From TrEMBL:
GO MF annotation: an example: metal ion binding
Keyword Iron: yes
GO BP: defense response; negative regulation of defense response to insect; regulation of defense response to fungus; regulation of jasmonic acid mediated signaling pathway
Designated name of the protein: Fe2OG dioxygenase domain-containing protein
The keyword NADP is assigned to this record: no
Domain Fe2OG dioxygenase residues, every copy: 219-320
Protein family per UniProt: Belongs to the iron/ascorbate-dependent oxidoreductase family.
One Pfam family matching this protein: 2OG-FeII_Oxy
Domain of life: Eukaryota
Cofactor list: L-ascorbate; Fe(2+)
Amino acid sequence: MNKNKKDVKVEIKKGSMDEWPEPIVRVQSLAESNLSSLPDRYIKPASQRPTTTEEAPAATNIPIIDLEGLFSEEGTSDDVIMARISEACREWGFFQVLNHGVRPELMDAARESWREFFHLPVNAKETYSNSPRTYEGYGSRLGVEKGAILDWSDYYYLHLLPPRLKDFNKWPSFPPTIREVIDEYGKELVNLSGRIMRVLSSNLGLKEDKFQAAFGGENIGACLRVNYYPKCPRPELALGLSSHSDPGGMTILLPDDQVFGLQVRKDDTWITVKPHPHAFIVNIGDQIQILSNSTYKSVEHRVIVNSEKERVSLAFFYNPKSDIPIQPLQELVSTHSPPLYPPMTFDQYRLFIRTQGPRGKSHVESHVSPR
Ligand code: OGA
Ligand code: NI
């Protein structure tokens, strides 16, 4: 089980995080140059291409859960909804939520503001270019390994919390209302995350604020990655985002309302998520898998692209305070079920993905306690 441990040990050479190993090419520029073929750097090995892995029947979808009533004032919880969330966290690691309390107009405004931003010419966005040290700003790759096969997407990454990392100057200023829209959207998603965290704790028989406390209480981190997947000339050879599990606590995704793309692994098949109008897609990240001692699953997912339509998605990440050790909760371990993971801070943990880029579940699977 531990044989890969040495290979994935994170060693950061001094200075290696200050810049990208190769000049950055914007995927938007490639897409707009009417290429007849796909550049080699985007051609995935045959085993990772979307068409070579078995796909589930088109009607299959991740669970869709209506939260109506769950968050009512009296604090009454609906056992059926709670049980469905519990099963989704254990069996799927992914579910869609309806009646989540965030206004549909705000969801649309957030996504369409970002679409306008990405429609700016590339050179207007270069002032926001990011570096691998913080990832903040406009980016076109994850990971700093030279020669890596890249994903067919550009993105924008920014911090919402903690307050000391939230810096409007690092956010886009076009379209003119984008900052206030992101700000309001971020606050709503922090609230929604807090409510879902209470459900996740209760469902494990814990006090409802247990997960939140383990995340550092008020001092949690929250950030947004907006993904822009341009049209791709050879979608069968590429991926918009390679298979990965999310390193943080929990993710709330607002998908494109017109274009499919997200695929979730269920056993050995890939399920293409069919988004319900104005639903959010919630998924468990590695830190909650670790806290729950693997009762809840942080599941692999990836994004496929197409030649007809671009796609925009907003991934909101709800994370533990970055410098406190995260390990299985004491209440969930015993001699019969020993802790599966040693303590590690999220700052340390996320270096895996920041240096190596998306690599399925290898990060959390190599982070296991010695036997
Ligand atoms: C992510 C992610 C999925 C999507 O940003 O981590 O998995 O549909 N995004 O863009
Ligand atoms: Ni993800």
